Amino acid sequence: MDKSAAFIKHIVIAATLGLSAQLDVFYMVVALLGVFVFSWAGLFDVITVPDMVKAWNENRKEEFRQIASGQFVFSLLLSVLLAVILYLASAGVAEVAIGFDQERKGLLAEAIPWLLPVILLYIPMRAMGAALRAIRNFSSQYRSEFLITLSILGCVLGFRENEHVLLWSYSVGVVVAFLFLLVFARPYVFPFCNPFSVFIRRAFQLAPGLLVLQGISYVLVLTDRIFVSFLPVGDVSALAYGMVLPALLPGLLALNSSGAFITAIAEQNDRAVVSDRLNDIISLTIYVGLAGTAFMLMAGHAMIQLVFERGVFSAGNTASVVLALSAYAWAVVPMLLIMPLEQVFQVERKIGSMVRRAVFGVVVNIVLSAWFLFGLGWGVYGVALATSISYWAMLLAGLRGLEYLGYNIEKRRHLRWIGWNALTLLLACGAFTALKSLLESSILTLLVAILVFAGAMLLASLSCRGREQDLIQSTIRRCLPR
């Protein structure tokens, strides 16, 4: 429901604004908040979870409450500091978008005050979600994320002509979600505990490295948008919309933000068991991710045209978004896997190893973006492709690092599974290409693509004997009652 509401929100915004300067500014300020606020929220989302899981499972409830409440208070203090800094330095922060003209830089500086509730409450909200997940209350955070999106959607639908609605609707959504989570987390955060207790200090020994890891994806997004800010008005928005579909799968599987996997592995002391779970995640990621990539490459234009091309969103806008999508689609598999890998490194308290690999990915992204954009002139496509390559660099380096730690990554198993899925998907691509010329409308093209690639996935799962077949069937059975 959360992802569906978010998708509808994008449709409404696209039809109302198109790829415009106003939308460019919105996505640029969100990228800035990602680096300065959301990365901190990601840190608070996971940093104390292993300690809270152990305290709760060992019935040390008072210690659990001291960690949960102390982290919440710490997050409040940090949020106030960030809000003051960003408000006072809003004009300077806007200069980060070095390719923007002065008009868009001015709009960017004016946007920050509208988002002060997000800056003040988003990190504490995620701190409360971490405490609830530590006791396996996952649904509360999922519902809070849905409330954010639903509130934004309602505001955009009701006040679509308001020039600042994209900004203040986000603040409304975060306030609603914060109050919702507070109802469930209140027994664990009130009365307030010492934010600098020994439990908090011990957990935050990993903070510098974890903050880098949590911020890497936001740095990649901001880097992309800074490079694209040199291109004509609307290209920042095209880049953002090009990521909507590739980011949808990680969001639906809850691997990129919820932190659920860290709860499961923090409960285990046996590396062999964690290795088995990790290999299962890799197998499922290959199954879903490769199919998603092939589907977006083949049917991306039909989907973008059908979903977004209305109102002021033109055919030219569609072409720009499809360019970005065709490059970002290659990043689906690493986007699905990087967060679970980071959580294994955190439980192992080997953050430095993953940080070095993540920084390597950022360097790859910057170098390739500059080359593709300024050297080869590939525009939006080049910047998006550089990001996809950098995600793969981080993923492969992370898997290698886990092997050094003693985890068993079953490479032969996964290579066989990749080959088998690639074969069935190539057959699906050939069949779809043959049928595509006979299809006259976007909706019919999309329906045929769904049937063809769903059939390829079904063929891959039924014809492959062994662990993957059992894994897919058990996963489907586990999900169906929900």
Describe the structure.
There is one protein chain. The protein is an all-alpha fold and 482 residues long. Helices cover 82% and strands 0% of the residues. It contains 22 helices and no strands. The mean pLDDT is 86.
Percent of residues in β-strands: under 5%
Overall pLDDT score: 86
Largest sheet: none
| Large-scale geometry | globular
Content-based structural category: mainly alpha
Q: Features of this protein?
A:
single chain; 482 residues; mainly alpha; 22 helices; globular
Provide the fold topology.
Blueprint (H helix, E strand, L loop, with lengths): L1 H16 L3 H26 L2 H9 L3 H28 L1 H5 L7 H13 L1 H19 L3 H21 L6 H25 L8 H6 L3 H22 L6 H8 L1 H10 L6 H7 L4 H38 L6 H14 L3 H16 L3 H25 L3 H26 L6 H26 L5 H22 L3 H13 L3
In a few lines, what is going on in this structure?
The protein is an all-alpha fold and 482 residues long. It has helices at 2-17, 21-46, 49-57, 61-88, 90-94, 102-114, 116-134, 138-158, 165-189, 198-203, 207-228, 235-242, 244-253, 260-266, 271-308, 315-328, 332-347, 351-375, 379-404, 411-436, 442-463, 467-479. Helices cover 82% and strands 0% of the residues.
